[in-house]
Amino acid sequence: MVGGTVSPTSLLVNAAGAALSTARNIPEEYGPHWEGFGKRVGISAVNIAVSNTMEAGLGSVWGEDPRYVRDGEGPFKSRLGHAMRMTFMARYRDGQLHPAYARFIAIPSTNFLSNTWRVDSDATAQRALSRTAFGFLGRLTGNVFKEFWPDVSRKMHGDKSQSPPSFVP
């Protein structure tokens, strides 16, 4: 899970969230400046690391594989559906997709647990629920990026050796 915690996708999503929170100055205690941005990135990175570790640990006991595997073929709509589905599903030892129970436990648990090390204005149940929603949104964003970026990158660099799939819905 280290790759998922410090991957370019994870770091980008983390930085974008911290930038938005810095622009909105939430929580106010950190301030709307570079130092506040750094604090937000740091606490988010810790949350992601704890959540990924918890998900991997619980998932391994239950036979869940939390890694995202690209569909890589077919129409845009189908591939987007795959990315969305895999936000809430995981492949199990039996090779079948089942609900990602470890993820359903890890993301909310980590966000409520992190209330113990957050500033008071950010350590509320409402904020933990909001962070939980953003945790799943971040997972979806990462899945979409992993699904489509290889094709976009290949197209941008003019690699014609493998035609990218159609992006027509």
Please state the overall shape, judged from the principal axes of the Cα atoms: globular
Average pLDDT reading: 89
The beta-strand count equals 3
Largest sheet: 3 strands, antiparallel
Individual helix count: 6
Roughly how many Å is the radius of gyration?
Answer: 18 Å
Q: N- to C-terminal separation?
A: 32 Å
Report low-confidence residues grouped into runs of 5 or more: none
Specify the structural class.
Answer: mainly alpha
From N to C, what is the helix and strand string?
HHHEHEEHH
Strand content: 5-15%
> Helical residue percent?
55-70%
How many separate structural domains? 1
Lateral arrangement of strands in the main beta sheet: 1-2-3
Question: What labels describe this entry?
Answer:
6 helices, 5% strand, 3 strands, 169 residues, globular, mainly alpha
Walk me through what this model shows.
This protein is globular. It has a three-stranded antiparallel sheet with strand order 1-2-3. 64% of the residues lie in helices and 5% in strands. The chain has helices at residues 2-5, 8-24, 34-62, 76-88, 101-113, 125-156; strands at residues 64-65, 89-92, 97-99. By secondary structure, it is mainly alpha-helical. It has one domain (2-156). 24% of the residues are buried. The chain is built from six helices and three strands, in the order αααβαββαα.
In short:
With about 170 residues, the protein is mainly α. It is built from six helices and three strands; from the N terminus they run αααβαββαα. It has helices at about 1-5, 10-25, 35-60, 75-90, 100-115, 125-155, and strands at about 65, 90, 95-100.
